[in-house]
Amino acid sequence: MVLKEKREGVLLLTLNRPEKLNALTGALLEELYQALAEANQDPGVRAVLLTGAGRAFSAGQDLTEFGEEKPDYEAHLRRYNKVVAAMSGLEKPLVVAVNGPAAGAGMSLALWGDVRLAAPGATFTTAFVRIGLVPDSGMSFLLPRLVGLAKAQELLLLSPRLSAEEALALGLVHKVVPAERLMEEALALAQTLAQGPTRAYVLTRKLLLETYRLSLEEALGLEAILQGEAGRTLDHEEGVRAFREKRPPRFQGR
User: MF terms per GO, please (predicted)?
Assistant: First the structure.
């Protein structure tokens, strides 16, 4: 249910239930978690690109998975939380290509990309209140940080269907790309990131997420700690050497 393909330092992951609009199940989430964990352990993977098969990114949770039983949502969300932790803590930059509708938890997963591209036909819907639920999969954490509290309340309480262009205006995606060029451009972007200073990318993401809960003094302290870590990488040495030699750096992700 998750297709995996390596292309020049990029691990392409495709949610592959096109007949169900890539609706999420426990099995699919486990496969996605394992793929992200494997990416962390593979030195040949320098960036990850996530997209969906067919005409959707993901329609969110597949409610038919529960049958007639009332789900234990607290237990069920442990599966989602594993994936969110893997995405937010990924040791490689993450690009998301939203090729079609992204709803509910599908929208949540899309927003965890470090860089997010969308096709013109992509749509974004929080969807949770439509079935009497609260946001999950990290949306309550991430959405107000992306669009502000007031707009997040609007999107969560009214659950409008946003076009790709509306999502771009709100900062939910970074660029809208013609559908026929979406994967080409997303892959090129991921390959550019794959040639960069991987550890610096990851530490920058960690810094940005952490500083929302820190005072200025604490943020300055964390900057110093993470800068010390970045300064000990081989990529930093190469960056300084390339600067002095007036040539492009050749980063190795170490």
Answer: catalytic activity
pLDDT at residue 223, rounded to an integer:
92
Q: What mean pLDDT comes out for the span 207-218? A: 90
CATH 3.90.226.10 residue ranges for the chain: 2-194
Structure tokens at 178: 């013609």
| Helix 198-210 × helix 234-245 angle, to 10° | 110
What CA–CA distance (Å, rounded) separates 238 from 247?
Answer: 10
CA distance 130 to 119: 25
- Supply the pLDDT for residue 72: 84
- Parts of the chain belonging to CATH 1.10.12.10: 198-245
User: What architecture (CATH level 2) is domain 2-194?
Assistant: Alpha-Beta Complex (3.90)
H-helix segments, the chain: 26-41, 73-88, 105-111, 139-147, 149-158, 164-170, 182-194, 198-210, 216-231, 234-245
Cβ within 8 Å of residue 175, ≥6 positions away: 117, 118, 168, 185
Yes or no: say if 116 and 174 are a contact pair by the CB < 8 Å rule: yes
| pLDDT, tens digit (0-9, with 9 covering 90-100), for 234-248 | 999 989 998 999 999
Q: Is the pLDDT of residue 67 over 80?
A: no
Tell me the pTM. 0.94
At the topology level, CATH places domain 198-245 in Lyase 2-enoyl-coa Hydratase; Chain  A, domain 2 (1.10.12)
- Across the range 201-212, mean pLDDT stands at 91
